[in-house]
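Troubleshooting: if your tokenizer reports a length mismatch, compare your output against this known-good record of 223 residues.
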Amino acid sequence: MPRFFNSEEIPPSPDLHFESALWSAGVLRVAGVDEAGRGAWAGPVSAGAVIFPPNLELPALLPKVRDSKQMTPKERDYWAEEIKSCCLAWSVGFASNEEIDQLGILPATRLAMARALESLPMPAEHLLIDALRLPEVEIAQTPLIKGDARSLSIASASILAKTARDSLMIRLNDHYPEYNFARHKGYGTAAHQAALQNLGPCPIHRCSFAPIMEYYQRKTSPE
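Known-good structure output:
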């Protein structure tokens, strides 16, 4: 489990404190891992994995990289390409809404992370993960509270996970245009709630999530 966390440990921007310590110890393939879409009501959860070369100049090359939630879509799209150009390896994995309903959101998030790691073109030697541990992955790992604010690798993984998931939700909007997934990406906005009120859930909604279950109950309950 992550150790007790002091908020004063958060740097002004994500840095290479944890990566550089591992590089100095001879662990060169350090993968940052993070998720996106965990709180959405529809669509998959995604996870990104990024391995950087042991280069202490990376923060200067990626100065605006931070927790993806603090960035605009345009910023995320731009820096996602910069991350890909600077890293040794990257990948994104998904767990579907059906898997979320079957397994639960936390196990499904871990599944997406494991798939991202399996898809890397080179094996990671150590994982830096935002707050989670992957017990079924046999790779040394360090879970970090607020990892996307502290580790450049984790912040980069969060951006790749977010941009990949957003792109998928935009494509899914073509199949379900009445829900406007391209705009809210499956999160519980007022517009999304209004669509659910009018139409009920669609095949990519997470039926195990309480707000979606309520709509099913309303639909099936007697007048």
